[in-house]
Design goal:
about 650 residues, ARM-type_fold, BRCA1-associated ATM activator 1 isoform X3, ARM-like, cytoplasm, BRAT1
């Protein structure tokens, strides 16, 4: 049907080419089949057709086949329900107003599918731009029903009518929730996930029932922890099914975190923080549940409203922090490394956002958290050491590192931390902590950390020396990032250079450039960068190429090529670079004069190298010649049809 005459195709199937009619007839037979795989294949073909073709003939196809699609809903259970949902949403997304009876079919499908099967269809309907309000209301009710049932079952006493009231009372949903643990868990997790995806969308239903949804999420978490005390028979059975269920706990915590973007009554927000603290304290919480609880807690803390006319944390948040930090201390001492790691990640994010808030600083320094964080730099698990490096670096940036008296860090404490991080960079056997150290050093240099600013040249020299010897390519790549930040600061240009910028960076004044080149030579940046140019790991070589191209653009007016080329050691350096490119990496460059550097930057074909590095790493292996050689090698082993292959 997608031939030259596509625009002139009649919507009447009887006027189509014979082959097209034969295909449609086969699809009709498949849709009427009692074999589910055949029905699934037919629905998949139609999903693809409606997703890619939007001509008049597809309207005729829908008119002819929609009665057969609707007839599938009369079967119990509905066959190939997932494929049916995909087809209906594909038709609805293409041109819904063109397809007669589509909205009615969608409404019927929502009514006939089970609550679990109807969830993805309801979410898809609510994401549509143009959709009848009645259908949107029906779809939203499908998603709300499981949570409405939970609220109704766990209610201590009849409450005021809420926005979930219209979604309650569906006996099929209640039956599904109580039929088995797997059915209950599956339905609740799907409902929570779908509502969480819907929450940030601009086309979400309005008004959005924020308060009832908050209440439902808190209730589910309490049912799972066993702290709820439902009085109804349904509530008691739900509690027995859900207690200790980690999968529902994780889904509910994710949903609770998503709801932090909205507002709610203070009483409900207090309940949210209470249930989050309950999960963080509970010894029954698994490591994954704790990770989700930390993430949800962070989202709620960061969304806390600011007190008007005050730049500090509001009283409710400060009170919660005083309860939270002892719990964090305990979790940093957990025998489970995943828990220690989650605690450190949470601390890093809190410090990044609140490091300058007086209330947070006071509460943190009064606790043992900074000292415990520093101790975890020597944790036996490499992931934890890496997270401890990041957390300690963030604490140090805000002057919140550990001190015996609990005061803000003096210079000696900061210096000892710098020495310890350099020791980790040089000696740690695992790559994750070393990568974290290089990232912290880059942030410190970029942000003007006090210890770094005191002697930036010595700091950069030590970091680059360690990074250049590292076997981990990510450490070497991060070392080049640090070198670029240092170069920009020397040239008086804050902020990182964008490699995708259309215009080249402006050239630096000759005096500034000459001084910068001398400093860069002293810290042996060029030894590192030129060696990295021929690194066996492509990302490192690309980063080095970008760095040297950036510097060459800055060095454009610095002397003539003849003057620069007169430097006596240029020829020997070029010979060394050629040996490096050939794979002989033993001989060092030694100290380079600024003039020799400028000459090298002009003589090395950096653009050509960049183009070579931009090619895919397997471009040679995927060439036609290489594929033919592979075929010959294969038949040589098999000994069959060798002559034909030649």
């Amino acid at each position: 049907m997608r031939g030259p005459a596509e625009g002139h195709r009649s919507p009447q199937a009887c006027d189509w080419p014979a082959c097209a009619q034969k295909i449609v007839g086969h699809i009709e037979d498949s849709l009427c089949s009692t074999a589910v795989p055949q029905v699934t294949q037919a629905l998949s073909v139609l999903t693809t057709a409606f997703g890619h073709c939007h001509g008049l003939w597809t309207q005729g196809l829908w008119v002819r086949l929609s009665p057969l699609v609707a007839r599938l809903l009369e079967k119990d259970p509905v066959p190939a329900s997932h494929s049916l949902v995909d087809l209906l949403l594909s038709v609805a997304r293409s041109a819904p107003s063109s397809y007669r009876g589509l909205w009615e079919t969608l409404a019927q499908t929502l009514s006939h599918l089970s609550p679990t099967q109807a969830g993805p269809l309801a979410l898809g309907i609510l994401k549509l731009q143009d959709c009848p309000q009645a259908l949107r209301t029906q779809a939203f009710g499908i998603l709300l029903q499981p949570l409405a049932c939970v609220l109704e079952a766990a209610a201590q006493a009849p409450g005021p009518p809420g926005l979930l009231e219209g979604a309650a009372g569906n006996s099929m949903t209640v039956d599904t929730l109580l039929s088995s643990k797997s059915a209950c868990v599956g339905l609740l997790c799907c409902a929570l996930a779908h509502l969480g995806l819907l929450q940030p969308l601009p086309q979400r239903p309005s008004p959005w029932p924020q308060a009832p949804l908050l209440g439902a999420a808190v209730t589910i978490l309490r049912l799972c922890s066993g702290s709820a005390a439902p009085t109804s028979d349904v509530g008691s059975r739900l509690c027995a099914i859900l207690v200790g269920c980690g999968r529902v706990q994780r889904a509910a915590l994710d949903f609770l975190g998503a709801l932090s973007q909205g507002t709610g009554p203070q009483e409900l927000v207090t309940q949210v923080f209470s249930v989050l603290l309950e999960y963080l304290v509970s010894p029954e919480s698994s490591s994954m549940v704790l990770k989700k609880a930390f993430q949800a807690t962070l989202r709620w803390l960061l969304s806390s409203p600011k007190t008007p006319g005050c730049c500090d944390l509001d009283p409710h948040t400060q009170l919660f922090l005083r309860e939270l930090l002892p719990v964090l201390q305990k979790r940093l001492c957990s025998p489970c490394w995943e828990v220690r790691d989650s605690g450190l990640e949470f601390l890093t994010q809190m410090t990044r956002h609140w490091g300058g808030q007086a209330g947070f600083r006071q509460a943190l320094l009064a606790s043992e958290v900074p000292e415990l964080t520093k101790q975890l730099l020597r944790d036996p698990e490499s992931y934890v050491r890496a997270s401890a490096v990041t957390a300690t670096g963030q604490l140090s940036s805000w002057g919140l590192c550990a001190t015996p008296a609990g005061h803000e860090c003096p210079g000696a404490q900061q210096e000892s931390l710098l020495v310890e991080l350099l020791h980790i960079l040089s000696t740690d056997s695992e790559g994750f902590p070393r990568r974290a150290v290089m990232q912290v050093f880059t942030e410190w240099l970029r942000d003007g950390h006090a210890d770094v600013a005191e002697d930036a040249e010595q700091f950069v020299a030590g970091a680059l020396q360690a990074a250049s010897r590292d076997l981990d390519w990510e450490v070497r790549a991060q070392g080049l990032e640090l070198a670029l930040v240092f170069l920009e600061q020397l040239l008086g240009q804050r902020g990182s250079h964008c490699p995708y910028a259309v215009a080249l960076p402006e050239t630096a004044p000759p005096g500034v450039l000459a001084q910068a080149l001398q400093v860069l030579c002293r810290v042996q940046l060029f030894e590192f960068a030129f060696r990295a140019l021929f690194d066996c790991d492509r990302p490192v070589a690309q980063k080095s190429c970008d760095l040297l191209l950036f510097l060459r653009a800055k060095a454009a007016p610095c002397g003539s090529p003849q003057e620069a080329g007169d430097s006596p050691n240029v020829a020997s350096v070029e010979a060394t670079l050629q040996r490096w490119q050939a794979g002989e990496q033993g001989q060092p460059l030694g100290y380079l004069e600024p003039g020799a550097v400028v000459a090298l930057l002009r003589s090395v074909d950096l653009e050509g190298l960049r183009d070579t590095l931009a090619e895919s790493s397997d471009h040679v292996e995927k060439s036609p010649q290489s594929l033919l050689q592979d075929m010959l090698a294969a038949v040589g082993v098999l000994g069959e049809n060798e002559a034909d292959c030649y």
